[in-house]
From TrEMBL:
Keywords assigned by UniProt, alphabetized: Transferase
Any one GO MF annotation of this record: transferase activity
SUPFAM superfamilies in alphabetical order: P-loop containing nucleoside triphosphate hydrolases (SSF52540)
Annotated organism of origin: Paenirhodobacter huangdaonensis
Protein name, entry field: Sulfotransferase family protein
Length: 206
């Protein structure tokens, strides 16, 4: 891949927003379009752990993701397993990846923060897990009161918009927009063959 430290097949696209904001939809869209994509897990290991292991052991956050075209969800929050990883919210790490891989593309998946907060609350034990964990921008014990998750999300979105402002390798993608698939395909230079709603909440709502 041009512009990377070596010629291995490593991710050239990272989704850097929140879960329950279209990560599964983007994952399926990429897979249906012929790309190899890692979502949450890769080869039975949390993607977030692979990213941090690659960074601290080899000086390259993407080193352990060989064979992957894209990463659609990096976070892994399972406090019962002693695992709480959010590289998608680690701005210093994201800037390091941009420096090491200047051709890597970043997608900030977007939906209204209030809708994402509502989806968090309806997805299994997600709110319970995040309130038990220290997460960048959301200290342990926060996230259980109305509006706290939405505020956390909006702050990260604003930070990413400022940091990547004017970067042609950055796309804020509203996953609810009618032209989302077209915008994704144009950004990637790759035709998208499927778009819809993947991994909906058990009640059938986003």
């Amino acid at each position: 891949m041009d512009g990377t430290p070596d010629a291995r097949r490593l991710p050239k696209l990272l989704v850097v927003g929140f879960p329950k904001s279209g990560t599964s939809t983007i994952q399926r869209a990429l897979e249906e379009s012929g790309l190899v994509s890692a979502h949450w897990m890769w080869r039975n290991r949390p993607v977030g752990r692979l990213i941090y292991d690659g960074w601290f052991s080899r000086g390259d956050p993407l080193a352990l993701l060989e064979g992957v075209d894209a990463v659609t969800q990096m976070d892994f929050c399972m406090p019962s397993q002693g695992v709480n990883l959010w590289p998608n919210l680690d701005i210093a790490l994201l800037l390091t990846i941009r420096r090491l891989y200047p051709d890597c593309r970043f997608i900030l998946n977007y939906r209204p923060p209030q809708a994402t907060e509502s989806s968090f609350g309806r997805w299994n034990t997600l709110v319970e897990r995040i309130t038990e964990s220290d997460i960048p921008g959301l200290p342990r014990g926060r996230g259980g009161r109305p509006g706290e998750i939405a505020r956390w999300i909006e702050t990260h979105l604003d930070a990413m918009r400022q940091i990547f402002a004017g970067d042609p390798n950055f796309l804020e993608l509203d996953i609810t927009a009618a032209d989302a698939a077209e915008r994704l395909g144009t950004f990637l230079g790759h035709e998208i063959h499927w778009w819809g709603v993947a991994n909906a909440n058990p009640d059938g709502k986003r």
